[in-house]
Amino acid sequence: MAAAWGRLAAVAAAAVLIVFVLFVVNQTAQVVALADRVSPVLGSMVLWTLLAAYAGAVLYIALQYLRLPKPLRPPASADSPAYPRYLAALKERLRRNPAVQGMPLETEADLAAAMEVLGRKADEVTRSTALQVFLMTAVSQNGSLDALAVLAAHSRMVWQIAHIYHQRPTVRELVSLYANVAATALLSRQLEEMDLSDTLRPMLSSVLTSAIGTVPGFEAAAVVLVQSLLSGSANAYATLRVGVIAKRCCGSLTLPDANALRRAAYAEAMKMIPSVVQEGAKAVTGIITEAAGKALIDSVKRISATVKDTAARGVQQIGQGVEEVAAAGKDTVRRVWDWLPFRRKPAPGAGGDNPASP
After folding, report:
1. Which of the residue ranges 145-154, 180-189, 284-293 has the most confident prediction, judged by mean pLDDT?
2. What pLDDT is recorded for position 129?
3. What predicted TM-score, i.e. pTM, was given to this entire model?
4. How far is residue 119 from each of residues 26, 77, 191, 319, 348, measured CA to CA in Å?
5. Half-sphere exposure of 85 (CA within 13 A, CB side)
6. Are 237 and 262 in contact (CB under 8 A)?
7. Which long-range contacts (CB under 8 A, 24 or more apart) does 331-335 make?
8. How far out from the chain centre does Cα 358 lie?
9. Residues with Cβ within 8 Å of residue 239, at least 6 apart in sequence
10. What is the spatial distance between Cα 168 and Cα 165, in angstroms, rounded to a whole number?
């Protein structure tokens, strides 16, 4: 099974590498063509600069790869004749490992203590990656993008754990490691058999209680938030299992059994998931609470501005109405005043005050 998945992983890796090279060539051609339109000399300079950068990147990766010592294959059991030779080679490798430099490495107990130190460092990388996956998938909620991001995070985590144990796997062994991790963690049936919601809902409820009561109207978004956190928790749990399996594959003194490794990874990941979920849920709810608070403040500001605008227009309209009423009243009073009898002017030539005609 592992060999089949190893071949499949090798084909997939080759396909991805070919697509990546074609993408780089296409983008490089476009950049060089754009520079060449400005000046042929500039186009040549850009081309050789990019080629030098690519060569430097490849050389750096190759040097980092070659700096790691060759991998050691653990024997099937401690009773194997190759077990003493493996322990001697492991001691020699650990003496060059900066993480355990200075520790005694004489007995098998010393080796177990050194492996425990490396295991704690691997656990730190695993928890950090799981938290990143939790936040990324809980906020993103994009299935295709999340799958690619989780795959990239898992691949990077396995590579970092291999560096922690200071080994240099060959391409075939690295593919075998990834295949074993995939076959043990991602393709196992235990993830389908367990119900994460029963385990995670009490933790999420304790985290969400304060946040739901803080922001008005947050209850309506609580269902969507819980679904997002459950999705992030499931991906974080898968990440923890991958990290645990990679750690046990790299740090075991004997070749681990697949079934035993699966059960151990299940138990250890379940111990690590509560702290990751609580920390990630607090971060997500904090972000959403802050965003909701800012949105509420913005809404209040918009409502206040609208009320102020409406009041100003109302006062202006009332003032205009008062002026119109006052003007109309003034005209009416003037007409009534002019209509009064004592305010009437006598017609020309009428009345006794006029002089008599000759």
Report:
1. 145-154
2. 93
3. 0.59
4. 43, 21, 23, 80, 124
5. 6
6. no
7. none
8. 118
9. 126, 129, 130, 133, 150, 153, 154, 157
10. 9
Residue-range domain boundaries for the chain: 1-67, 112-299
Structure tokens at 155: 């691949």
Query: What are 164's two structure tokens?
Result: 């922690």
Residue 91's pLDDT band (cuts 50, 70, 90) = confident
What is d(CA 343, CA 1) in angstroms, rounded to the nearest whole number? 120
287 vs 283: which has the higher pLDDT: 283
pLDDT at 279: 84
Whether 160 and 234 have beta carbons less than 8 Å apart is answered as no
Nearest C-alpha neighbor of 120 from the set 159, 69, 164, 168:
164
- Distance, first Cα to last Cα, the chain: 147
| Residue 74, token pair as written in the block | 């653990």
What six digits make up the tokens of 149?
Answer: 């991001």
- Least confident interval from 58-72, 269-283, 343-357: 343-357
What φ, ψ does residue 251 adopt, rounded to 5°? -110, 10
Residue type at position 11: V
DSSP assignments along 248-314, one per residue: HHHH-SSPPPHHHHHHHHHHHHHHHHHHHHHHHHHHHHHHHHHHHHHHHHHHHHHHHHHHHHHHHHH
Calpha distance 100→112 (Å, rounded): 12
pLDDT at 50: 92
CB of 225 within 8 A of CB of 303?
A: no
Report the pLDDT averaged over residues 304-320: 64
Return all residues near 253 (Cβ < 8 A) that are at least 6 apart. Answer: 74, 78, 86, 87, 90, 108, 111, 112, 115
Q: What percentage of the chain exceeds 90 in pLDDT?
A: 10
